[in-house]
Amino acid sequence: MGHAVDLVELGSGSASKTRLVVEALLRRHGQLRFIPVDISRSILEESSLALVEDYAGLEVFAVAGEYHDGLDFLKTEGGPPRLILWLGSNVGNFERADAVHFLQRLHGAMRPGDQLLAGIDLRKDPALLIAAYDDAAGVTAAFNRNILTRINRELKGAFALDQFRHEARWNVAEGRVEMHLVSLTEQSVRIEDLDLLVPFAAGESIHTENSYKYSLSEIQRLAAASGFVTNGQWLDAAQRFSVNLWQPGLEAKPC
Predict the structure, then answer these.
(1) How far apart are alpha carbons 211 and 97 in whole angstroms?
(2) Torsions phi, psi for 51 (to 5 deg)
(3) 213 phi and psi angles, rounded to 5 deg
(4) Helix, strand, coil shares of the chain as percentages rounded to 5?
(5) Local confidence band at 254 (pLDDT 50, 70, 90 cut-offs)
(6) 95-123: b or e for each residue (b if 16 or more CB lie within 10 Å)?
(7) Is CATH 3.40.50.150 the right assignment for the domain spanning 6-123+214-248?
(8) Which end of the chain is more exposed for a tag (fewer CB within 10 A), N or C?
């Protein structure tokens, strides 16, 4: 199949939002190869089949694996220029230095003519962030407590989930939302497979996850440190989220 551009997505998931980009590129070029990268083989199979059924002129070549598997593929694969999607503010899941390191690796896997479209969540009113990470429906709390469920299942832990409260905190100095599980009482929890007894004081927390937010100036520094040149940037009306179009520059610069 002849095509003028490849569309690559890191962490594609169900690819539901990706359809907007697929449709735009198909309107422009008529044909397109989509290369989704995701750790879940079952989700890749399901989404890939749905896409090829819905769009004529679309070829899907799925890569089941972690990010580094996708980067290895990009290094070796030839073909037309590529638009690489890294959406959902996944960069926020990395420590700041690790984000630079990963983007430098991505830069090294790209060819002249390739571009990266990256979603990056912005710093904003802490009250909005706390409400998002401690939602009234308890969805995020259930997600956070699932860590304890997995320890119980996979390591023979004895965590009582109702004895830990989900808490989201805004760390202004680090520019990140922190997820915690706070012990409601003084207790000790046995993890059998690790031969470990973990004591908790009442109010003591397990720091489970961070989600980093960026200012516009921090985004520019991130791009420069990773070796990218900015081709475009779009913000929502409330300036809470950014989408950034980058192309590889000559070399990465120190932070």
Answers:
(1) 14
(2) -65, -45
(3) -115, 155
(4) 40, 30, 30
(5) very low
(6) ebeebbebbeebbebbeeebbbbbbbbbb
(7) yes
(8) N
> Tokens at residue 254, please?
């120190």
Does the structure show a pLDDT above 70 at 251?
no
What angle do the packed helices 67-76 and 96-109 form, to 10 degrees?
Answer: 20
pLDDT for 17? 87
* pTM exceeds 0.85: yes
Place of tokens 């990395």: 94
Distance from the first to the final alpha carbon of the chain: 42
Q: Which is nearest to 62 in space by CA: 10, 107, 122?
A: 10
Domain assignments of the chain as residue spans, ordered by start: 6-123+214-248, 126-211
DSSP single-letter state for residue 157 = B
**Between 77 and 110, where is the model more confident?**
110
